[in-house]
Structures are given as structure tokens and as C-alpha cells.
Amino acid sequence: MSDFDSNPFADPHASNPFADQSVRQASQSGQKVESLDDFNPFATDQFVAPSSRPAATQPAPQPAVLQTTYDAPPPAYSEPIGGSQASADYLNSRQEELERKAAELDRRERAMQQNVLTSTRANNFPPLPSIVPVKPCFYQDISIEIPLQFQRIVRINFYIWIAYSCLLFLNLWVSVAFFAVSASYSIANQSGVTFGLAVLYFLLWTPLSFVCWFRAIYNAFKSDSSFFFFVYFFIFFLQFVANVIQAVGIPGSGSVGWISGFQTISVTSEMGPKAMGIVMVIVGLLFSILAACSLMMLFRVHRLYRATGASFSKAQEEFAHGIVTNRTVQQTAAGVAGSAARGVVEQSYSGANRY
Fold first, then answer.
1. 3-state class of 31 per DSSP?
2. How many Cα atoms occupy the beta-carbon half-sphere of 185 within 13 Å?
3. Per-residue pLDDT tens for 206-248?
4. Using CA atoms in the order 199, 286, 247, 205, what is the torsion angle rounded to 10 degrees?
5. Which of 51, 76, 155, 228 could disulfide-pair with 220, CB 3.0 to 4.6 Å?
6. Residue 283 and residue 128: Cα distance in Å, rounded?
7. What's the Cα-to-Cα distance from 195 to each of 162, 201, 285, rounded to whole Å?
8. Helices marked H in 119-150
């Protein structure tokens, strides 16, 4: 082959098998290379490393492990700014509330123990001073005798009674002023009748409203009595009607209100009657607000009453049982029966002597 067929850019040692560095090192070290037929790949002494460089060691394969979210540690808790102060205030308020409840329960327990030991409770309402010869007529303690879930509604009824009593007292004084203004300006509008009836209403309706409907709702929630609930519903509805009439203010009805006030304003151009009429309209407005509150309270108590499962038949049973177990009724019935028996015996004895 001529030199023209050779590649001038090729490696001159590429076709020489002895140009390999490993073959040179093996030949120089004098190691004997056996033929391919005598080569045993399982013999350790027949293998000659191609180079003196150590083989790179590969790391052992690790099993694939799925990283779960709960393996990671939770993040460090960082308290919000102002959180310690807010939590401390909350704990202090809770502790004060628990202390108040504990003190209230301790007071109620001591009061109940005292009532059990003495077996009699001194009346405390109305709270009259000791110099007054009239003594309190009722024992009233809402925090002890009324269940906890009904104490608020009983107190609201008590506040309604106080507001009604104050309005009756205000109606009395406005009626006095109305009578004086009518006499001064010679206005004939039955102011004298209104003043007289206002005095009667204040003296009569203030105690009767307390006894008839407030004590009824008090005893109803105290003893869960359907009979007292029905008494409250009937009398308190009449109370609502009376408030509406007093708010209207019919002349001569015993109360100043809308009609009497507007008539007094329009009867003359003098400032005295006009100012008196404005005051009467304000009293009528107060009676109207009280009537609205009374109607709302009536519906609220009725809703609670229906939720307890009470009925009219239960009220009749309680009424009959109360009459039968009443000591006064029993003594009266025993006296009547004894008198009738003595009369029968006397008649029989007198008839036998006649024959």
C-alpha cells in the first residue's frame, strides 16, 4: 500500500496494540499473559488490572423512603404580640367570674341552711324601715327561690311593676297640675274627675298589680305551677289593656294621655295650658311604651310556658289538688260535715222520742 492511502492526521500508535499503557506496564513488570483458552475469569491470580488506579467505589443503594408530613418537626410556637397580656386578662376575668359564682352559691347555701334550721323565713318585702308600724308582707328572694334560667325574666317582670308604679305616681302629680291649670284658666275638661281617679288608681292598683300578677309569675317559676301561669296570663293581659287605656288618656278616665294632652294644647293659646298639654302627651307616650313592653313580656312568658309542656288540664289538676290539700278548706269541710252529722243525729233522736 502506498503512503498516499494513509491518513496524515491519524494517530500513528492507534494500530499498534502494544502502544497501550497497560500492555506496556504488564510487559515491563514481567507478568505472564496466558492465552485466551487458558484464561479463567474466576481465578484471582490470573487477572491483571489494566491500570494501577483503584476502581471507583459506588455507594450501596438505599431503599426509597417516602417522606411524610408528620415526620417533620412542628414549627416553633411564636406568641403573637400582646398575646400574653390578653391571655392574662382573660384568665383574670374568668377567675373573678368563678369567684363571684362561688360566693353566690355559698351565700345561697347558707341561706337555705338557715331557712331549714329556723323553718320560718322573715318577710322582707316591701322593705319598710323599722319605725313604720306596718311590717313586710312577703318573702322575696329571686336569687334563691327562682331557678337560675328563669331569674332574668322574673327580674324583668319586677322592673315592669316598678315602672308601672312610677307611672301611676307620675300620672297622679300630672293630674294635680292639670287640675290646677284648668282651674286657673277656667277650662272645663273634667280635670277634677281625672285627679280623683288618679289618686284612687295609685292607691289601689299599685299593691294589687304586685299581688295579682307579679306574685303569680313569681310563684309560677318558683314551683313550676300551671295554675299560677294561667293567673298571670289573665291578669297581666288586663294590665296591658289598662296601660293602653291610660296611654289614650280619655278625659275623665283618671289618666292623662294623648287625647287629654292634645285637647289641652288646642283649647287656648296661653303658654300654661300648652306646656301642660305637652307634659300630658309625654305621660301618654310613656304609658304606650310600657304597654308595648308588657305585650312583649306576655308573649315571651307564654313561649316559655309552652316549652315546659304545661297545659290547661294540668292547671285544673293543680287547682283541685290545692283545694283538697288546703288546711283551711279541710277544716271548713270538716266543720260543715260535723254540723250536718250532728243535725241528722238530733233529728233522729227527736223523732224517736216523739214515738
1. coil
2. 19
3. 999 999 999 999 998 888 888 888 899 999 999 999 999 999 9
4. -40
5. 228
6. 28
7. 22, 10, 19
8. 142-145
135 close to 184: Cβ distance less than 8 angstroms: no
User: 59 is written with which cell numbers?
Assistant: 455507594
Q: Is-contact 256 174, C-beta < 8 A? A: yes
Most confident of 269-278, 288-297, 317-326: 288-297
Output the nine-digit C-alpha cell for 97: 367570674
What value, to the nearest 5°, has the Cα angle with vertex 198 and ends 197 and 201? 85
Beta strands in 105-250 (DSSP E): none
Triad 129, 130, 133: Cα angle to 5°: 100
Residue spans of the domains in the chain: they are 147-309
Residues in the chain: 355
Q: What is the pLDDT of residues 13-41, one digit of tens each?
A: 555 655 666 656 655 554 444 455 555 66
Query: Helix, strand or coil for residue 138?
Result: strand
Q: Which residues contact 281 (CB under 8 A, 6 or more apart)?
A: 257, 258, 261, 262, 265
Helix (H) / strand (E) element for 66: namely none
Cβ atoms < 10 Å from Cβ of 291: 19
pLDDT in tens, 38-85: 556 665 554 444 444 555 555 555 555 555 554 556 666 555 555 566
- Amino acid letter for position 60: A
Are the beta carbons of 278 and 237 closer than 8 angstroms? no
- Residue appearing with cell numbers 390578653: 86
